[in-house]
From TrEMBL:
Residues 407-508 form the NOL9 C-terminal domain. Its EC number is 2.7.1.78. This is Polynucleotide 5'-hydroxyl-kinase NOL9. It comes from Rousettus aegyptiacus (Egyptian fruit bat). One of its GO terms (biological process) is cleavage in ITS2 between 5.8S rRNA and LSU-rRNA of tricistronic rRNA transcript (SSU-rRNA, 5.8S rRNA, LSU-rRNA). Interacts with PELP1, WDR18 and SENP3. Interacts with LAS1L to form an ITS2 pre-rRNA endonuclease-kinase complex. Residues 2-111 form the NOL9 N-terminal domain. Residues 545-564 are annotated as: Disordered. The lineage of its organism: Eukaryota, Metazoa, Chordata, Craniata, Vertebrata.
Length: 564
């Protein structure tokens, strides 16, 4: 990872062009994703003599290099070259992630290197290591063609803002394509909207969320390096929507209603495209009415029919019915509005589904996942996203890291927030055991929860409501009737929180097992655990945990003490 500044000319990183005079960009190239490259970009020859160009370059270099280094550099100067400054980069979020045992490999791995020379040591001092070209990002001709067309369509603004839905099976490069497309669009327009419909591999939030974001900065790293605050977000609470499809569709409809159609929209979808997953995808296409559907396939992916407008018209979805073909492909959304329970104002809107343009992309995406290790790999990426979010709690560099149990939590009275456990039936007497040491969604419901004397206040049904952020319930004070919540959400936003949702997304085990500076038994961790107890096995709603370490619910642990 490093900070990239273009001092002269132009370079491109992951599709985003960095020109001289533009702000520096932080670049994160990790072993969990394709390696990033810095490429020189061909630019038009300025109407200046070579002497004038060298004088200009020398002036631009003066604030950054001493005279000897400038002279050496100018000896290698040529017209149309690009000069890039690479600086060592440290961020509190990355420092927090790699402080956990076993996670430093994400950025640093010992392996055979190229020739060890002065260039090798210079790059290493900045935080860069040369990699073989085959490890870099490779885009196929069909992917490049789709990117070029989508950028052109988005910049023309002839037919309004395009809605681009990207679909395909797992591990074919959808997320990589989305990042590259966002960066390419940001070269020409100021912002791009992004609708996240993939619960398991979210791009800008912790897992288990449906969200809408307005992206104004390039994406130059994996998700755990760019956690951002959405315009609209709902916490679904699981990494997959199986067995609760209708709620999934309703949440997407609720979040999508905030899209203003002022910028191009990119829709990311799940990699589940067989059986009911395919039917859900057809429902989504009908609901979102995309102008373009980018469908990925590869020689290693499962068969998926081409989602042409005719195919979508003729197929029943999970909740929507097929439409008989009409010559102009135009029809009202009356039946869909009824089946998806649109609000009255939506039913009266003149929204027309006029068909989409299908863009088939053949992927040659290299990945190391196999059916055997896929779930383990995906769980690591989900944990990294949660750690990336928690990294916002850390003080900025160069201040040292602070362990999570050393940070001061917020005190939340029992009667100030309502509680709901998602996707699992929990007896009211056990609710606090489920909440303690859990990952919680900090939400805002329309109901007024004030007026209850003691609490806890339990919701009978799962609400579809705005999620303002996340936190860890790091302790419960039964005497004072307080939750102790650790969260990076700013206080002005926390004032709006009146509901805590607990789903099946867990606090990463490395957080619980790596509590430094503690003596004796580690709070919430035990090796003495009976998996035969009811509710202890990994079923729906259970936390994804190892056999040897389990979270131990404890309504009044010594861990909750406030540290000043």
């Amino acid at each position: 990872m490093c900070r990239v500044t273009c001092l002269y000319g132009q370079v491109q990183v992951f599709g985003f062009t960095i020109s001289q005079g533009q702000p520096s960009q932080d670049v994160f190239s990790t072993y969990t994703h394709s390696r990033l490259t810095v490429n020189a970009v061909h630019y038009s020859m300025p109407e200046k003599s070579k002497k004038e160009m060298k004088r200009e370059a020398r002036t631009l270099l003066k604030p950054h290099l001493n005279q000897d280094d400038r002279c050496w550099l100018m000896k290698n100067f040529s017209p149309l070259c690009s000069i890039v400054m690479l600086e060592n980069l440290k961020t509190s979020t990355v420092n927090f992630i790699i402080s956990h045992p076993g996670l430093s490999y994400i950025f640093v791995q010992e392996s055979r290197t190229f020739q060890i020379n002065s260039e090798y040591f210079a790059l290493r001092s900045v935080g860069i290591k040369k990699e073989k070209k085959k490890n870099g990002l490779r885009l196929t001709e069909s992917a490049l063609s789709a990117l070029e067309e989508l950028v052109n369509v988005s910049c023309e603004e002839v037919d309004g803002c395009p809605v681009i839905l990207v679909c395909g099976s797992q591990d074919v490069g959808k997320s990589t394509f989305n990042r590259y497309l966002i960066n390419q669009l940001l070269n020409s327009i100021s912002c791009v909207d992004y609708l996240e419909c993939d619960l398991g591999q979210t791009e800008f939030t912790p897992p288990g969320c449906i969200s809408l974001l307005n992206i104004t900065e390039p994406i130059l790293g994996p998700p755990f390096t760019h956690q951002r605050t959405p315009q609209k977000m709902v916490y679904y609470g699981k990494a997959a929507c199986k067995n609760n499809y209708e709620n999934y569709i309703d949440i997407i409809k609720y979040v999508f209603s905030s899209y203003k159609r002022e910028s191009p929209l990119i829709v990311n979808t799940m990699g589940w495209v067989t059986d009911k997953g395919l039917l859900l995808l057809i429902d989504l296409i009908r609901l979102l009415s995309p102008s373009h559907v980018v469908q990925f396939s590869s020689s290693r992916s499962k068969y998926m029919p081409n989602l042409t407008p005719d195919y979508v018209d003729d197929m029943d979805g999970l909740y929507t019915k097929s439409k008989s073909k009409v010559r102009n492909r135009g029809f009202q959304l009356t039946e869909f509005a009824e089946s998806l329970e649109f609000a009255d104002e939506d039913k009266e809107s003149p929204l027309m589904f006029t068909g989409h343009k299908l863009m088939c992309v053949q992927s040659d995406f290299a990945f190391r996942k196999t059916p055997r290790n896929r779930e383990s790999h995906n769980r690591i990426l989900r944990d990294l996203a949660v750690l990336g979010y928690l990294g916002q709690l850390q003080p900025p560099v160069p201040k040292p890291l602070c362990p999570l149990h050393g940070l001061t939590p917020y005190q939340v009275p029992f009667n100030a927030v309502a509680l709901r456990i998602l996707h699992a039936d929990v007896a009211p007497t056990h609710i606090l055991y489920a909440v303690n040491a859990s990952w919680v969604g900090l939400c805002k419901i329309l109901d007024d929860v004030r007026g209850y004397a003691d609490g806890p206040i339990l919701l009978a049904q799962t609400p579809i409501c705005d999620c303002l952020g996340f936190g860890i319930c790091r302790g419960i004070d039964m005497e004072k009737r307080l939750y102790h919540i650790l969260t990076p959400v700013p206080p002005e936003e926390l004032r709006n929180v009146n509901c805590l949702l607990v789903g099946a997304i867990s606090v990463p085990q490395c957080v619980l097992k790596g509590q430094r500076g503690l003596e004796g038994t580690i709070p919430y961790v035990t090796t003495d655990y009976n998996l035969k107890l009811p509710g202890a096995s990994e079923k729906i709603g259970a936390r994804e945990t190892e056999v040897t370490y389990q979270e131990r619910p404890h309504p009044k642990p010594k861990f909750y003490r406030k540290v000043n």
